[in-house]
Description:
Radius of gyration: 18 Å
CATH class: Alpha Beta
Number of helices: 6
Helix content: 25-40%
Number of domains: 1
Shape: globular
Order of helices and strands: HHEEHHEEEEEHEHEE
CATH architecture: 3-Layer(aba) Sandwich
Strand order of the largest sheet: 2-3-4-7-8-1-9-10
Largest sheet: 8 strands, mixed
Amino acid sequence: MASRFAKLKETLRYDGPLVFAWKVLTRVVSPFAELGGWILFDVDLTQPREEMKAKVDVEVREATAEDIERISFFANLVYARGSDPSDMGEYDPRHQKVEREYVSKIMLDRFERGAKCFIATAGDQVAHVNWICIGWDHLFIPDRRFELGPDEVYTTDGYTTVAWRGKGVHEEVNNAMLLYARRNGYKRAFTIAELGRRRSHKGLYRVGWKVTGKVITFKIRGRFFMVRLGGDISPLLR
């Protein structure tokens, strides 16, 4: 209980009263409904784009299926435990085998469907993992799929370990993915961020992402509702 109050206090301090009120509301309704707030960002890939470098030296490269064990660690808690893997430090093989196998299958399925994973490493440490989806629909929020056009890409599941946060690693990797998409002829990129994670939005703005629209989602008794808060949400309604 004390840790929950500490997190809410930190939210109020760093994210402001609106985000604080939103997080309190989601906790209040969580016993009987799933409430979510989402921001749709986009980037025009037809515009010139320069390389970006982090404040520290990292190697950014496209991951392969051979990296699946390391990648799965980052996603493990999201898919199997529902929390932020960035707070777990380095890879720990003691995580339950069932969870690792479950997440590994999800990651391998992404590779097989054409998704690309980019990672930033420093020595034997993985500092950041990020995905770019190409040519297939992506389940971006519960019960809602994002159908990509032939010249569109979608970036998702970017995570930075605690030790490497605030050093511009996420920005370098995210920008590298956009450069990759631009070189390969794609014209528009999308990503979606949680409304209540305001601090994570700063890196997106620095890379050049712009807010396209905002929505609130509500799921209760198996029924799903999406309400537009503002902007253009037509890409979510295809």
